[in-house]
Amino acid sequence: MASSTDDDKGGGDCGCCAWTVLGLLYLSIFVLPTFLPSADSLANPNNLPTTCSVELAGFKGLNQPAAAPGASSPAFDLVVRVDNGHDFTVRHGGGDVVVSYAGVPLARGRTPSFDMYANEAVALRVNATSDGVGVPEDLFRLLTEERRRGMAQLEVELKVAWETFACDVDLDGQPRAFACYKPIQQ
Fold it and tell me: What are the φ/ψ torsions at residue 34 (nearest 5 degrees)?
């Protein structure tokens, strides 16, 4: 006689195969793509972001407070280096540059317009000046104290190639380039 236990259960199929297939399908559609590189990075493996740095080549107008006789407006000579990491030409029509100390804008300037071919770098001279009469007394005291301690930093904010960058530049008189970063937009 035939055993009725196999026939009553439908041939012993518990549905495990269907759940396994569904689990693999879920992994391949939703989980695995999060660990894969983007299609753009696969198509353009050498395509890196635009980066820049700023060097303080010289400055004037920071040696006297605004109320002192003969005080001059702050002015900064900057060298902005831009590196086009992209695989395409970047055209820049010039952008604003703001030099600040302790959140107070001291001078403004503009980067010149330029064309940069793929993976090319360029150095730009920028002269940031002020129409004001000098550094306010309280800010001058803070600046003098921080320079004495070797801690004074200017913040240079600039717009280059459709992006905003910020650089913290030491005010110690040592010419060197400082890498820029993308500030957090609020």
Answer: -70, -20
Q: Is the dihedral of CA 32, 33, 36, 42 positive or negative?
A: positive
Return the structure tokens found at 26.
């879920």
Q: At 91, give phi and psi (nearest 5°).
A: -110, 125
What are phi and psi for residue 43, nearest 5 degrees?
A: -75, -30
| Radius of gyration (C-alpha) of the chain in whole angstroms | 30
80, β-bridge pairs: 54, 124
3-40: pLDDT as tens digits: 555 555 555 567 788 888 888 888 778 776 777 666 55
Q: Cα dihedral angle (113, 129, 59, 164), rounded to 10 degrees?
A: -50
Tens-digit pLDDT profile for residues 89-134? 888 899 999 999 999 999 999 999 999 888 899 999 999 999 876 7
Nearest by Cα to 103 from 71, 143, 68, 75: 143
CB within 8 A of 95, min separation 6: which ones?
110, 111, 158, 159, 160
**pLDDT at residue 157 greater than cutoff 80:** yes
